[in-house]
Structures are given as structure tokens and as C-alpha cells.
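[SOLVED] Need 3D model of a two-part complex

Original post:
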Amino acid sequence: MTSVPQRAPLRPAGQFVLRAGRGSSFLLHRRAMTVAGALAVLLVGAVVVSLCVGEAYVSPGEVVRVLLGLPSPDELVVGTLRLPRMVTGLLVGAAFGVSGALIQTVARNPLASPDVIGVTHGAGAATVAAMTFGVTSYAVLPYVSVAGGLLAALLVYLLAWRGGLAASRFVLIGIGVSVALGSLTRLFVTKGDYLVAQQAKTWLTGSLNGRGYDQAAPLATVLLLMLPFLVWAAWAQRGSAFDEDTATALGVRLGRTRLGLSVVGVVLASVATGAAGPVDFVALLAPQTARRLTRTPHVPLVCSALMGALIVVVADVLARRLLSPLELPVGVFTALVGAPYLMWLIVRTRSSRTGGTA
Amino acid sequence: MSRAVSLRVGWMGVGLLLLVSAVVLSLAVGSRAIAPSVVWDALVHGGGSDDAQVVRSLRVPRTVIGVLVGVALAVAGTVLQGITRNPIAEPGILGISQGASLGVVCAIAFLGVHSLTGYVWYAFAGAGVAAVCIYAVAGSGRGGATPVKLALAGAAMNAFIASLISAILTTDARALDEFRFWDVGSISGRDASIAGQVWPFLLVGLLLVLGMARGLDALALGDDIARGLGRNVALLRATGALGATVLTGAAVAAAGPIAFTGLAVPHIARALVGPQHRWLLPMAALLGPVMLLLADVLGRVVVRPSEVPVAVMTALAGVPFLVVLVRRKKAVAVA
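Solution:
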């Protein structure tokens, strides 16, 4: 790519500075921007495909007409049936992607995804419990799942804290707590009446079936509200990706930064789980693939979001069409891809103690 | 008898007493509480009363299967912890049980096998493949099979197989109907004949494992010392893994995947009778059914009139145990 200007020796190679008034500036990574652009293009393509395919095929031209609000015979199929579901998937993927990026940054470990540290299972258990006890309002459920996710994360954190937070202990206890919460969820499913149980069961595999704006709205709201935090996070994560000594020397207040980043990450994963159930491994997969593409030293937030959205939209298309007329939950597909990836990650992780962000 | 030995014999006696009490509880407690004397009557004299019917046709098979599965899982866990020298090794955590489930699902969905003696072989195959994969993943890379890598690889394997299973079941409604039985591990509603079909496999698994008790003791000292003692380390590991796989496969074929029984029981047994496997294995075999039956009885009581599957109860009881283990063991923390 272009050569680094000679007069800016402090500027890292391949990056340029975006200044917004005095004192606030951003380092933008050129390659990351290219990747983000490419991902965005792919995402638009996936979105169109997702709206085209289904029980009845709709041509891309008609899809675009519907999206532009022009009159079309496929208004019902595309606009009413497929669009809400696709939008939900998009938002869920983006939220999981960002959440994974934040939590992996804080833990400085690619294995510490929200799935592994109990967040999604906590949100899932809380949501199913609420459903069992007759709460079905989508105005309430998102709060329930956020509370569940935060509580689970807090529990894992407290249980794993022992004069420090060794990554291995954190991950092991996270897995244990996840299993317990999964069992608790099944207990609630057993207790609830049959219809609720069926509903909860489908939801628990991470499905976009029957999801729509009802589920997407709270997620969109949270994402919008979190946007300022995310901008801050993008700035703060550079500091927290360093080790303690370097960060402190650079004047980054690690404790507060890390706490802030993890809370944002946990909230995002919890709301996403509340919307579509625990769509496994997206939060693990998206940041890692994004990071490999951008080759940035830190986990890229925007690319992780785009990658997460892309993964979920594509997986949902596959889940709907591969075995048609039968429909698989989208979580099945993300797990089939994500689990082998996690194993590969385990094989090539140099040492489980440090883990590294690699 | 030295003091240490009599102490161990004493604990074995306590274990046996616990097992008898658990069996009595399992026969007496349920949606219909039946007095132990009536249970005894029904067992010994038969009779046609409702209580006697319930005891003989429902609770006896359930209890017998609970005992068999409890023995199998606890012994499998003990052996896995022995051959991996890893405190958190267990068939459920490592995804071996889930692998056995996948074998059963495939047998039902694709091969039209519908009897336990038919698909128990597929359960073995599934368990074996999963065990080999897990160990290959966790054992490669620097540091070998540390607890974290083993647990993570197991979690990944569990998730992978679970999604494969749900993909297969979505496409095959009849298999789903048959498999719901195993979906969540449970020992309720099992046919009495299952116990009769499964015990030979358990016996083979137990014999394989008991024969290598001394070998497991040698392995505990480290591979080099075990070799120095004239043991064939690779052969020991292979035999142990085979035994654990057979036991897990048989247990899953009979009752579905039940996690955490094989995690907690060996540690409790070790605390009582020490690390020598010729004491440890029998003690685990006594305590395994105790834990499983108590969890099952508890599951019948907590959400009356419905029931909680025993696998849910063992997980809820076992996870705090895992947490304590992870916090206490230095080996786990620094691995």
C-alpha cells in the first residue's frame, strides 16, 4: 500500500490519524478499513440473498424494489416475513461480534468468549425462567436477559477471583457455571407448561425462526445507546490490550477501562441472547476471523461487528435452505463451524496460562 | 490388619450402607410415597396391590438401571482421571458421553437399529471416536493435555456433537421421537429388559479396568517412573481408555448422557480411601450409584408432580464441586 509519510515518524505504518478537534484523535488502520469495506459489501450481498431465498424464490430486483418501498407483488414475503428475521439476525450477529471482541480484549485471551464465560447461558437461563413464570412481554424480557448475563458473569468472576484472575481458572469456572446454568434452564423447561417448554426449547438452540422486530427493537436500542461507549471502547482497548506494565506506563487506567469494556461486552451478548437465544460461537469466531483479516495488533471492533453479522446472516440462509423444506436453528450451523475452530485454537495456543491475543 | 487398612474397610462398609439406603429411598420415594415395609413386602411376597405394582414394574427397573449406570460412570471417571492424571477428566466433560449419544442417534436414524443390544455398539463407536478426538486436540500443542485444554476441547466437542444431533433429529421425526428418551439423561421409564441387556457390557468394562488397578497406581507416579517399574505406559493408557469407553457407552445406551457423576465421585472416594486404585475403584463403584440414586430421588421430589431428569440434578450437584476443585487445586490453577 502507500508508503508512510516521512514527516510523521510517530505514526504507525499503515495507519493515519483522524482528528476531531483538539485533543481527540483516532488512529485508523488502512488495512482494517479495506477489510471493513469488503465485509460490508459481502454483508449487503448476503442480506440480498437472504431476502431472495426461502420457500418461494424472489428475484434480487424485486427485493431491491421492496427495500426501496416501491410497490411489489412480493411485498408480503420479503417485507413482512423475511426482512424482520434478517434484520434480527444482522443485529444479533453484530452484537455478538462486538461483545466477543471486547471480552477477548479484556481477557487478552481468544478463548474467553461470552459463550465460554457463562454470559449467554446466564441470559438464557434467566429468559427461560421468566418465560416459564409467564413473562412473555418483549418490553420486559431484554432486561431479564441482561440481568441474567450480568449476574452469571459476576458469579464467574467472583468464583474465579483468588488474589488475581488466572485465565485458566476463569475459563474452567466459566465452563462449569455454564453447565450448571444450562441444567437450570432445562429444569425450568421441565417445570413449565408444554407450550412454553416447546417454545423455550427451540429458542435455546439459537434460532431466528419467527423472530422479528419485536426482538430486534430492544437490540437495536441497546446497540444505539452503546454506540458512544463503543467509540470509547475502540479507543480504550488499545491501552488495555497491552500488558499491565506497558499500559500503566502509558497512563491507561487499566482497572476501570477493563471493567467498562467487560460490562459493555456482557450487556451486548446478553441482549443478543435474549433476542435469538444463544447462537453459539459467533462471539468467539467473529473477532478472531476479523483480526486475522485485518492483521491489527488488537481485535478490531467494526470488523468484528460486520463479521458477526455476516456469519449469522449466512448461517441462517444455510440453516433455512440446506435441508429444505426442513429448517434448522441457526445456532446449529454456527456451532458446526465454530466448535472445530475452537479446537484448532486450542491446539495452536502456545500456553494455556498466557493464552495471548493471537 | 493395619490401622490404615481397617480404616479403608470401614469406609467401604459405610459406602455399602449408603448404597443400601439409597436403594431403599429410590424404591420408596416418588409421586406415591411407599413405606419401606410395603416395599419389602412387594419385593419378597409379590402381591397385586397398586403399591406392589408400582414398586415392581416401575421402581425396581429404575433403581437397578440407576445402580448400573452409577457404577459405570463413577468407575469410568476414576479411570479417566487416572490415565490422564487430570483432576477434571470425566466422560461428560470430555464429550465422550455426547459421542456415545451421537452413535445411538445415527444408529436409530440411518441404520434402523432399534434395540439396545443393537445400538450399544454404535454408542461404543461414538464414545471411542469422541475420546480419541478430544485427546488428540487437548494433547497436541505445547503443554500437553492440561485441565483447561481438556475442558475447552470437551466443551467444543459437546457443542459440536449437540448441533450434529439436533441437525439429524430435525430431519427425522421418528428418530426424534425415539431419541427424546436419551436427550437428557434420565433413568425413569426405562424398560426392565434394559438392565438385563446392559450388564454384560458393564461387566466387560469393569473387568478391563479392575485388571489394571496396579498399572493405574504406577501411572500416577509419572510416565517415566511407570516405565521404570516395567509398565507399558501406552498399553495401560489404551486399555484404560477402552475400558472407560465401554463403560460410558453402555451407560449412555441405557440412560442417556449423565454428566458430573464421574467427576465428583472419584474425588470423594480418594479422600476416603486414598489414591490406591485397588481401593479407589471399588469405593467409586459404591459411591457412584449412591450419588446417582440420590440425585434421581431428589429430582422426583423437587418439582412434584413432574420430575427433573437425573442428569440435570447431577450437573447441579457436580458443578459446585468442579468450582471448589478448580479453586483449591494448585495444579489446575497453574496448568
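Edit: Chain B has a mean pLDDT of 85.
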